[in-house]
Amino acid sequence: MTHSRRSFLIGVPVVAAAAVVATSTPAMATPAHQSPIAIRSRSAVDDPKLPALVVDYPDHVKLHVHYVRHDMNNPAGCTIRGPEETIQADVPADTAAIHLAGARYELLQFHFHTRSEHVLDGHHYSLEQHYVHRGPQGQTLVIALFLTHGGRGGTPQDAVLHTLPQECGTDRDITVNLKNSLPADLSTFRYTGSLTTAPYTEGVSWLILRQHHAVTDATVHGFEDLFPKGNARKLQPLNNRTVRYRRQR
What global pTM score does this model have? Predict the structure, then answer.
């Protein structure tokens, strides 16, 4: 996930606790709360009191699709696939958003990873799409959607990834029905983690959609061919965090 802004807890603002360090006693290290993680649905806490996810994505939006390089100043990067590089679609300002508990989180961009960064019940999916949002106080919220083989085509994901921009190549502008990019079932696993690319900033709110989305085999294979070694970060320890589940069908 390639966005580094301030973040927020699932549904409610984060209040940072002040760290008090005694001069005579070494401070204890705080366990890292990093992403991605392995999610087990049986271990997730069912929490119907979590705010419902309200999606306000338009059915007609122009996206700027481009290749994201890890080191823009290194010409050799044009021939080397970095593990933190991806294909990204930028969304025009004030075009799309989601709402949680009455607060608006603007969609800035979405991008893709292979294989999936998160694992659900021991299963890695072919692709994982990250919708990166900014909250009213600069918080970062990411909706993650698993993408699988076997689709018949016609999805916004198929349209965006149909012609992949090459590294150091030409960008694309494309108009899609963004509303159709999410499944009807908006049930989510929710936890607080981090960016999955440097600097791995913590405090990011993750909403992992349980329902996957099917895209064509050509879409999956095209992205896998572009990143033959993958572009996903390895799994991180849960470190006593609680994953909560909000059913929303």
Answer: 0.88
* Cβ atoms within 10 Å of 16's Cβ, excluding its own: 6
Sign of CA dihedral 195, 160, 86, 64: negative
Determine the Cα–Cα distance for residues 236 and 107; give it in Å rounded to an integer.
26
Ordered by start, the domain boundaries in the chain are: 38-70+79-246
DSSP bridge partners of 39: 120
- Sign of the Cα torsion 150, 156, 159, 164 reads negative
In one-letter notation, the amino acid at residue 6 is R
Task: Examine the pLDDT at 156 and tell me if it is beyond 50.
Answer: yes
- The residue whose two tokens read 């998160």 is 118
What pLDDT is attached to residue 168?
83
What is the CATH class of 38-70+79-246? alpha beta
Tokens 């044009």 locate to: 78
Joined tokens for residue 10: 């699932």
Taking only Cα atoms into account, the Rg of the chain, rounded to an integer number of angstroms, comes to: 18
